[in-house]
């Protein structure tokens, strides 16, 4: 209604002005132009245009958004103003009189949190049924100070309560005591097997390409499953159906560009996004010739195409491809790549019934090449997951919502192959392939029992088969301990059953609304996981060995109970929550001392199986509205493992056990042009093993460790990052740029990345026998490696 | 491979290093370290016993001389006694003619302060080394410019292919963490027939000695784990550090024990890098 009034006023004023003025478009001393909405290039009739120093001579744009205004003494500042849009002020010179000007006005910018409040009810956290779920708006993620200025989705999620990091700078997530491979990270419903670039220092997500991210810390709906500890559900942005838009940035180590718009008609859209680093360009500038010949880069490429097929049907196709490459001296190369694609068909059967069908394919592969006349080789591996998922949703009145469906997954883990180069003296290696089929049925219901009490109940039933083509080994011992104990092997044909597991995964949650601002929630979840990484390092590597559940490796399982109090206050400007949880892990694996799993066809002989548990309390105070937004989070948590063969069979903490974790995230908008962000992180140090002594063996001095694992701690970790963003004053131009200046580790805290316990020769930790002369002294010492102290970066971002 | 990761990380990360003081726990009680080597060469046959000490303890390492040390051949009455030699701080066979013979299983016993430690090993047949050659090589990835030695030989065995090569350059044993040259048949053994290049750049005039050991798997695993420990930087990409799994067992008394009992043939070869080559 308000828009109609505006149009009428504009039309009326235009008629009046035209009848009075009747000005020629090229009349001398007259400035002409048009005013458009930057979001869709639609004209903005009724816009006020006036000279800043002479308000009385203002005009109003006509129905086409066009205007003419008599010039004053130039240069002078012209103000273009329209209700609901940001005011534009541009300095006009004599030259501007000769050409028609276009002013693009931007709708008045609300903080993204306010937009979120439009998307989710202000009292959402109190009234919904979800516990352990967190969202961070993409705009908030963009405002968080970033390492190298690279806005990073996964690193931002680490700032939420209950989410731990492996260590400095890495993007691995450890959610409520779960390991990194227990996170299901998916892009538009398709899983990503290695969500990191550059050994985990950056995640694969280009922030410009993303629409939203949801983090479920274990309490996920029955329609999702397959991983124990979290679901990180990332959606790619859809294109707009009105005109071509773009955004991007030029950063310290990478640049990115995203283009979106209509495709063929307003019924279909596209968005294409790309990002590439240029570290290798800097390497070429190095004075060190060895570094000049190295390559170091990664890129991301994603696209999403949406088609409205009719009133009831929509088809969406999306794809992501990202790859890393490290090359040394043209002799050695290591590359890895994710390629994830999905297609989704959404049908509105009726106003109350919906059907969604999704199919996807996710592939991950790595390759290592070594060019050497004697020992050259190519070592490669590939794994993939293909799936189809159908879900029906039925709304029955306002109090009942039901859904049910199926999800079928086919895992194909190709053999690890080492192929010698021509004339190489090493022999080829090939492990046997591993394949699995997981079929899931799921159903769930949300039911409002009373205005105060609601429940969500779901059940997921997984049927897993390890299938051929492959080989299974028979051991003479009860548990596979050594390949020497193999007595026989059985070959299986394609899709022939090798081992079957099934598991029921109940999910139930209750919410009791104490009042409009206060609720209590509780939930119980059970999850099974049939794929995992066989590794005992804390950070993921691109060559990590993924293994499937099989004859000797049972699926891992977790049961989680959680309870939470949720409170909103000050008219929902503030949110407060406290959640407690307890998790019981079964069949967790670790590796034996000195285990070799990379080229081993009998990985089961290197694995130890046990249990674990984790518990904690998460406190979150969050402000969503206003000039200052952000949150303060505190998590107290413990994580334990108990695996026979490790730590003398006693319980121990994995490295990522961090009892205390405090996070502060702040963003303040000083003016339309200036804003600033600040984050502070404080956590208990990592649980590690320090040596207790030394001993001599084989003419070497070795550190002596306790038989108990991770009895020691790194010093507590803390760090503050800050950023300032300056947006160019809006001059009504379509191109809008902003500068972001970030500092990682503002006060230069030397947080340990690693401690090395070794002999220090000649009191010099960098002693080199070839250049520093003979050894005159030797003593045991501790050398700390630390990264990223006071690391500034600058990024230019733009939109058009 | 570990060196490679470290190199990659070093070039790619903004890392710095400082020496720091960390409060460390100390050893509870005493932990004996037994190093036993038993070969077909008398000069190599030795048992050393020492004690582990606290990490920052820089006093002289405590050597155990008051112990009873002997080797038996299970299934026989044969006992090979050892006696302590103060000049080498080690135990040596009383009878220098007692040496390892191929095909025999030997069991080491160490009695100390009422505790008995023991380990077994099978003396394996040595492979054949046909020749050593050397050739000048330009600088390559991870290899400096210099003269590189190749070892040509034959390994005709189907199992127990666990080898170590030790290199002695001008009477100095190369004994840095980079110097452990361990290999098994994971990647085949063709490279040994085609010429195994030692990873050292030698200079003209160098006298190079080479020792090739063929050991039991538990000993090979022990050395592999030692090397892992030497390369462990304690960081996220390293597995949690653990003491290597010793093949020595405590058969009487309660005690921890560290060390190894190596039973192995030793093939010894020498080569001189001539200036005029």
List how many beta strands of chain A DSSP finds: 50
Task: Please tell me what the overall shape of chain B is.
Answer: globular
The shape of chain A, in one word, is globular
Main β-sheet description of chain B: 6 strands, antiparallel
Distance between the termini of chain B: 33 Å
Q: If you compute it from the alpha carbons, what radius of gyration of chain A comes out, rounded to the nearest whole angstrom? A: 30 Å
Q: Flag low-confidence runs of chain B.
A: 1-7
Number of helices of chain A: 7
Mean pLDDT of chain A: 87
Largest sheet of chain A: 22 strands, antiparallel, barrel
Helix and strand pattern of chain B: HEEEEEEEEEEEEEEHEEHEEE
Structural Rg of chain B = 21 Å
Q: How would you describe this protein?
A:
The complex is a heterodimer of chains A (800) and B (277). With 800 residues, chain A is mostly beta strands. In chain A, 7% of the residues lie in helices and 55% in strands. Chain A has a 22-stranded antiparallel beta barrel. In chain A, strand 32 and strand 33 form a beta hairpin. In chain B, strand 5 (68-72) and strand 6 form a beta hairpin. The chains are: A mainly beta (800), B mainly beta (277).
Structural descriptors:
heterodimer, A: 800 residues, mainly beta, 22-stranded antiparallel barrel, 7 helices, globular, B: 277 residues, 6-stranded antiparallel sheet, 5-stranded antiparallel sheet, 3 helices, 19 strands, 11% helix, 40% strand, disordered N terminus
Summarize it.
By secondary structure, chain A is mainly beta.
Secondary structure blueprint with pairings:
The complex is a heterodimer of chains A (800) and B (277).
Chain A: H1 2-21, E1 30-37, E2 48-51, E3 54-60, E4 66-70, E5 76-81, E6 88-92, E7 101-105, H2 112-119, H3 124-127, E8 133-135, H4 138-143, H5 153-157, E9 163-165, E10 173-175, E11 183-187, E12 190-191, E13 196-197, E14 202-203, E15 210-216, E16 230-236, E17 245-250, E18 254-263, E19 265-277, H6 279-284, H7 289-292, E20 295-308, E21 313-328, E22 332-348, E23 353-370, E24 377-396, E25 400-413, E26 417-420, E27 429-430, E28 434-448, E29 453-467, E30 470-475, E31 486-492, E32 497-515, E33 518-529, E34 531-534, E35 545-548, E36 556-569, E37 574-591, E38 607-623, E39 628-643, E40 660-669, E41 674-683, E42 687-688, E43 691-697, E44 700-705, E45 712-713, E46 717-727, E47 736-744, E48 752-761, E49 778-787, E50 791-799
Chain B: H1 2-12, E1 15-19, E2 32-38, E3 46-51, E4 53-54, E5 68-72, E6 79-85, E7 90-93, E8 105-112, E9 115-122, E10 128-137, E11 146-154, E12 162-169, E13 172-173, E14 181-184, H2 190-194, E15 196-197, E16 207-214, H3 217-231, E17 249-252, E18 258-263, E19 266-272
Parallel strand pairs in B: 2-18
Antiparallel strand pairs in B: 2-3, 5-6, 5-8, 6-7, 8-9, 9-17, 10-11, 11-15, 12-13, 12-14, 12-16, 16-19
């Amino acid at each position: 209604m308000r828009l109609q009034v505006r149009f009428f006023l504009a039309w009326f004023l235009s008629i009046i002005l035209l009848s009075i003025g009747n000005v020629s478009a090229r009349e001398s001393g007259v400035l002409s132009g048009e005013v458009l909405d930057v979001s869709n290039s639609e004209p903005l009739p009724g816009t006020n245009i006036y000279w800043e120093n002479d308000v009385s001579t203002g005009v109003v744009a006509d129905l086409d958004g066009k205007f003419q205004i008599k010039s004053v003494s130039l240069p002078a500042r012209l103000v273009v103003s329209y209700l609901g849009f940001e005011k534009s002020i541009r300095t006009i010179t004599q030259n501007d009189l000769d050409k028609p000007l276009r002013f693009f006005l931007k709708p008045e910018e609300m903080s993204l949190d306010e937009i979120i409040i439009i998307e989710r009810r202000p009292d959402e956290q109190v009234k919904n049924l979800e516990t352990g779920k967190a969202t961070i708006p993409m705009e908030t993620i963009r405002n968080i100070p970033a390492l190298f200025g690279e806005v990073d989705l996964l690193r931002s999620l680490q700032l939420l309560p209950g989410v731990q990091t492996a260590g400095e700078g890495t993007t691995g997530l450890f959610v409520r005591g779960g390991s990194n491979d227990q996170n299901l990270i998916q892009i538009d419903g398709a899983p990503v097997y290695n969500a990191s670039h550059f050994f985990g220092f950056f995640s694969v997500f280009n922030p410009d390409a993303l629409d939203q991210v949801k983090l479920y810390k274990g309490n996920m709906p029955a329609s999702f499953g397959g991983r124990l500890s979290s679901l990180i559900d990332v959606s790619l942005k859809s294109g707009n159906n009105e005109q071509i838009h773009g955004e991007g940035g030029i950063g310290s180590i990478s640049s990115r560009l995203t283009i979106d718009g209509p495709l063929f008609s307003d019924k279909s859209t596209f968005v294409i996004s790309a990002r590439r680093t240029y570290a290798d360009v800097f390497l070429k500038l190095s004075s060190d010739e060895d570094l000049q010949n190295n390559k170091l880069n990664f890129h991301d490429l994603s696209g999403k195409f949406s088609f409205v097929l009719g009133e009831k049907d929509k088809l969406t196709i999306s794809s992501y491809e990202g790859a890393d490459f490290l090359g040394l001296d043209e002799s050695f190369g290591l590359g890895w790549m994710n390629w994830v694609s999905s297609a989704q068909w959404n049908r509105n059967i009726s106003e109350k019934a919906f059907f969604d069908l999704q199919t996807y394919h996710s592939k991950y592969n790595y390759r290592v090449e070594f060019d050497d006349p004697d020992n050259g080789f190519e070592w490669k591996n590939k794994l993939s997951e293909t799936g189809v998922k159908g879900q029906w949703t039925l709304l029955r009145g306002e109090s009942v919502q039901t859904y049910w469906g199926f999800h079928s997954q086919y895992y194909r883990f190709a053999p690890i192959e080492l192929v010698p180069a021509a004339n190489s003296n090493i022999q080829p290696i090939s492990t046997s392939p591993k394949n699995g089929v997981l079929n899931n049925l799921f159903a769930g219901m949300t039911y409002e029992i009373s205005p105060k009490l609601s429940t969500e109940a779901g059940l997921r039933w997984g049927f897993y088969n390890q299938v051929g083509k492959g080989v299974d080994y028979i051991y003479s011992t009860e548990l596979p301990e050594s390949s020497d104990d193999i007595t026989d092997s059985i070959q299986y044909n394609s899709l022939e059953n090798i081992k079957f597991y099934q598991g029921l995964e109940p999910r139930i949650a209750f919410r009791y609304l104490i009042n409009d601002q206060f609720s209590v929630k509780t939930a119980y979840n059970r999850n099974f996981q049939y794929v995992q990484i066989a590794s005992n390092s804390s950070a993921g590597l691109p060559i990590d060995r993924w293994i499937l559940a099989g004859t000797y490796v049972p699926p891992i399982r977790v049961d989680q109970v959680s309870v939470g109090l949720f409170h909103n206050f000050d008219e929902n400007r503030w949110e407060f929550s406290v959640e407690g949880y307890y998790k019981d892990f079964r069949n967790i694996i670790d590796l034996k001392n000195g285990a070799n799993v990379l080229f081993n066809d009998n990985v089961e002989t290197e694995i130890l199986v046990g249990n674990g548990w984790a518990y904690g309390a998460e406190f979150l105070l969050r402000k969503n509205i206003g000039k200052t937004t952000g949150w303060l989070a505190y998590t107290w948590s413990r994580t334990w493992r108990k695996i026979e063969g490790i730590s003398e069979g006693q319980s121990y903490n994995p490295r990522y056990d961090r009892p205390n974790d405090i996070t502060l995230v702040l963003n303040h908008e000083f003016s339309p042009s200036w804003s600033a962000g600040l984050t502070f992180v404080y956590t208990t140090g990592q649980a590690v093993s320090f040596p207790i002594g030394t001993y001599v063996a084989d003419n070497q001095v070795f550190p002596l460790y306790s038989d108990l694992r991770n009895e020691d701690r790194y010093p507590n970790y803390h760090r503050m990052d800050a950023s300032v963003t300056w947006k160019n004053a809006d001059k009504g131009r379509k191109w809008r740029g902003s500068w972001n200046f970030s500092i990682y580790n503002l006060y230069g805290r030397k947080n340990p990345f690693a401690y090395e316990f070794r002999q220090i020769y000649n009191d010099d930790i960098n002693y080199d026998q070839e250049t520093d002369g003979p050894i005159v002294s030797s003593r045991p010492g501790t050398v700390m490696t630390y990264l990223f102290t006071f690391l500034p970066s600058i990024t230019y971002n733009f939109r058009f | 491979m570990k060196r490679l990761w470290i190199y990659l990380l070093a070039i790619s990360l903004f890392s710095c290093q400082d020496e720091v003081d960390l409060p460390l726990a100390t050893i509870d009680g005493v932990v004996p370290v037994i190093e036993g080597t038993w070969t077909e060469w008398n000069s190599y046959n030795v048992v050393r016993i020492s004690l582990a000490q606290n990490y920052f303890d820089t006093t002289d390492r405590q050597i155990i001389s008051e112990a009873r040390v002997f080797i038996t051949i299970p299934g026989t009455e044969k006992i090979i006694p050892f006696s302590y030699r103060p000049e080498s701080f080690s135990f040596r066979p009383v009878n220098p003619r007692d040496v390892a013979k191929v095909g025999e299983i030997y069991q080491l016993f160490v009695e100390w302060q009422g505790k008995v430690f023991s380990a077994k090993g099978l003396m394996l047949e040595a492979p054949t080394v046909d020749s050593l050659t050397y050739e000048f090589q330009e600088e390559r990835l991870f290899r400096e410019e210099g003269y590189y030695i190749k070892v040509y030989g034959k390994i005709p065995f189907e199992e127990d292919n666990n080898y170590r090569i030790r290199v002695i350059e001008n009477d100095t044993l190369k004994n840095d963490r980079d110097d452990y040259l361990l290999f098994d048949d994971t990647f085949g053994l063709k490279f040994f027939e085609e010429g195994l290049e030692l990873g050292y750049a030698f200079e003209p005039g160098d006298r190079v000695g080479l020792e090739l050991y063929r050991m039991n798997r538990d000993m090979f695993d022990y050395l592999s784990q030692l090397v892992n420990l030497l390369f462990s930087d304690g960081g996220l990409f390293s597995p949690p550090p653990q003491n290597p799994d010793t093949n020595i067992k405590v058969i009487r008394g309660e005690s921890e024990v560290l060390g190894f009992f190596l039973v192995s043939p030793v093939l010894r070869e020498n080569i001189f890098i001539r200036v005029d080559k």
